[in-house]
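Internal tracking record. Fields below are filled automatically when a chain is submitted to the structure queue. Please do not edit lines marked as system-generated. If the sequence contains nonstandard residues, flag them in the REMARKS field before resubmitting.
Queue: standard
Priority: normal
Entity type: single polypeptide chain
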Amino acid sequence: MLFTIFVALFGLGFHRYFIIDDKGNLGIVSFNIFKPRKVKISDIEKIEVVKTGLSFIFKNGKKRQFYMRKWPKKYFLDALALHPDFKGEVELMDHMTNFDYFAFYEESKKALKLKLRKKGL
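SYSTEM-GENERATED OUTPUT FOLLOWS
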């Protein structure tokens, strides 16, 4: 019984994703009923990125933290940074100065493009 409760709460805690719409809203799909489901992208003042997740800091001073894996986080930040309503800043707060996984991602994409060019695709 205790294990079932643990699995249910664990699943509820990690079930979240984001939806960026064309109206300038960021939809947060989560089981946390006490937090807002939609926020304006223009209200995001800063995004702090660490290896385990990211934190939104809003203009009103509130802060929300989300845990994400590396690659979904990268694609989400790319989409958010390209949105015309996003005027905030993205700050890498990672303590791992020897390995910048965003630079690694960029280099792997460059290598893939070079391989595709050599094949003539």
